[in-house]
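worker-03 picked up job from queue 'complexes'. Input manifest follows; two sequence lines, order preserved.
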Amino acid sequence: MRPTAVILSLASDYGCQVQISNFPEILEMLSTFDLGYWQFVSSGDMPDAYEVALIEGAVTTDEHVELLEKVRATASCVIALGACAATGGIPGLAIAGPVRGQLKEVYGSGEKKVGAGARKPAPISDYITVDFTIPGCPIDPAELSRVLQRAIRALVDTPQRQSMCGECKIAENMCFWLAGTPCLGMIARSGCNATCVSRGRPCTACRGIAQDANIESAYAFAAQNKCDADQFESLIKIYNAANEQATQKAVTSKKTAQEVVS
Amino acid sequence: MTKLNIHHIARIEGHGNVAIDVKDNEVKDIFMEIIEPTRVFEAMMRGRRFDEVSHISSRICGICSPNHFVTNLIAVEDALGIKVSERTKKLRQLLVHGSYLQNHASALYIFAAPDFVGLPSFVPLAESAPEIVRRALRLKKLGNDLCTLIGGRPVHPITPTVGGFTDDVSAEALRHLSEQLFEAVADAAATVELFGEIVPQHFDTQGELVALHEIDLYATVSGQITALDAGWSKPVSEYPNIIKEKVVEHSNSKHSFIDGKTFMTGPLARVNVSWDQLLPSARVVASKIGLRPVNRNIFSAHACRAIELVDAAERCATLADELSLESGSVAPKPFKVKAGTGYGASEAPRGTLYHSVTIDSDGMVTAADVVTPTAQNLANLALDLQRFSPTVVEKGEDEFKKSVEMLVRCYDPCMSCAVH
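worker-03 finished. Artifact:
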């Protein structure tokens, strides 16, 4: 019997689900599963039982937390799909401001109704145990395929620990820092084959912060290259504001960097 | 009183419910709940630098990300007084107009088609109508290939930047793309035939039809805001004065009004407003299925999407060919950061998309505004639902719900855009 899989979304732009639907080879890989629920492409209700849950999006409401708890109690394998689910992603940027104040800015006096049950944006791992994480904005379909193959064999996740810089060197890209442009490749989690830098855009660490990254040293390097601690931290926050570990590290490393510079 | 709620309408982008109260076969109340969580994009963009907000606003929507990216860039460049090269303009037009292929093919084949054959999803069609599925996937793939070639990947382009692109496309790749686009015109025309045949009902929407319009081009990344019935055309910078947004009950998306009335944007509005600017080949296939302006039948919206596929494929083929023969640079020219407010608009697949940004003298964004097609359409959709539902209420619960969902899908709503 094929295992049942469901695809759900919290606060997101559906870009990762669009990525899935864009690649026939991924759809074929998904046919290994009985796709019990995929609201994006099919009518029908969530099944009561399923083995694998792919979850896109960041947690931003009480309802999301309830849903996550239900999913975790049901599924034997939970996969965080994309930057929003993995690190809080772009929705996580809102963590910088007060939830109420931001809602008021956008909705005016209608803020109360829209804001019912609103929470600070967070990655799903803040609330439940996640078995696999597929980072990136958007996800790399090949990585999803690899993870699904591991999931179906009940293997464990083996996240890339290194930073993106190495892949960028292999791609023989010119380093942005040489031209004085800040780039987060040295602390970003690898696995994207330097897609953005190869097309001329500096890395924004959409895949999260690499486990092996030396953040303190990165701050010092940035400072030596005319990118002060505030600017470097601001860059990190685009995709990693909700990632407490990274921002806490950022706070301490900022101090260290300032000491190094002074 | 019976409550016939449609929870999480499937085959649309995002989360929306329809709540319906029926008594003695009469619709007492019907409204759409937009439960998509808000991500407060306008608040998040404030405080970011001018060259970061377009990348961020691309994440409003995974399905029309090139549109958000380019529209926001136009607004930023307007604020800073940056003029871009002709090649940049053309390449952006190709990226935005080319995104119709992927978007319209998805809306038609993956979201709408299952309704017409009584299936829950597109997947079983692979066995019953393999040729149709292959055609759908070819169109989608070509749209994605186009976006990947110009933007770097199908979702969330990499290369667009303030003042131009970070990377250009080779003449050879553009020629190859042009050939593929010319070949796709046949698939697009077959799509018009298919969706021309299956206009299931006739129901005229009453709202004003609004789209960007240009005299000598089917407007996508340029033009003036134009209202068909009222007959006015106004510059894009006027949009905050024209379109008034209101926070409403049941919805995390605001509703939009022009002069206090609902209006419609999107393929049906565009084909009506810019009929004279459609390529002759697109008008020919339209006349073959008997579609001509003024057509207000909301169920013709799918046929209009298909007609736009023909126009987009042929126009983009010509554009790609032109670009392959021309030289020119897409690299941003040096510019000075200054304070100002800028406006941008484009025709996204679902309708007119507006962005505005205010930038201070340090280059930091102090205010941002985004008005998406679905946010503009929701009030009109709500009105359509109120008028349409009594005409189908006697069909029995299942058929009634199905008809209501079909009407919703004619708008191809995108809730993540609507709420953002």
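worker-03 released lock.
Chain A has two domains: 4-152, 165-261.
Residues 165-261 of chain A form one domain.
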